[in-house]
Each structure stands twice: as structure tokens, then as C-alpha cells.
Amino acid sequence: MENVKSFLIIGYGNQLRGDDGIGQEVARLVEEWKKPNVRSLSVHQLTPEIAEELTHFNYGIFVDASITGEVVEVSPLTPDDSETVVNFGHSINPRSLLSLAKTLYEYTPQAWLVAVPGDNFDLGDRLSPTGEQGVNEALTQIKMLIDTYSNTRQNEDSN
Length: 159
Known about the structure:
This protein is α/β, with parallel strands linked by helices. Helices cover 35% and strands 21% of the residues. Strands 2-1-3-5-4 form a 5-stranded mixed beta sheet. This is Hydrogenase maturation protease.
């Protein structure tokens, strides 16, 4: 029997600051795939409530714009065990959300950060050509992650 894994894609950033809206655009486009095992959240910023949401998924993929780098980078994430649960303030990041999920719910999904390069973070609601190219590459990388990890149990059982 196939054990399909579930994915939460969390795209975040400010859509009114040019390429800072890359994460939300990626999440919006992933939602259009209408895959039954994939849910996406498009948010302005990460909030503590997302920690609980993460506990319902096998995998979490965070998508954010990057002011450094020239290519889309996919990096594994682990909980930030140095974070205290009560001291988040405005500094919530993917690792601190994973830490919060681990502390409050004793579970964290396997997670990655997809950092997408951008070059225009000025006021405006349009992505630059660099940002648009990054969105397409990020979608390709996310699809590869989903395809690779969707049936990991089945693959492990057949070995």
C-alpha cells in the first residue's frame, strides 16, 4: 500500500516591495497545482500559529526572497534549539518555527528553505526579470522535492 507523504509550502514576504514578494508568488503558483498531498500558505510574515500548522505535515518547504546569491538555493532546516519559546518578537524565522513546533507539539517535519534571488526590493508590486526567473526555478526545485519525497515509505519498504 502506498503511503503518500504530505507537504506544506510556506511562501512569505512583502508583495509591495518588488522581489520581496517572491515567496508569496511561489506559494500561490504551487496552490494552482492542486496536488492532494500539497498545501500552500502565502503570508506576509511568519507567525507563531504556523508552528501548529507544520505539525500536520511530513515536510515543510519555506520559500523566501534572498538579497544575496545568484541562484536558487535549497537548504535543509533544523529547529533552532537556542531559541526560547517566549522570545520570538519580530524575529520569527523558519528555524524558530520548527523549534516552537518541537517544543509545543513534540514534532517537527523535515524541512527546507528555498532562497530565491531577487534584485529589486523597492516599492512596487511587480517582480524583476531576475525574480521571475527565480520563481520558475524555485517551482522546479519544489516539484523535485515533492517528487523525491512523496513516496519515501514505499521506496524504503521496497529496498
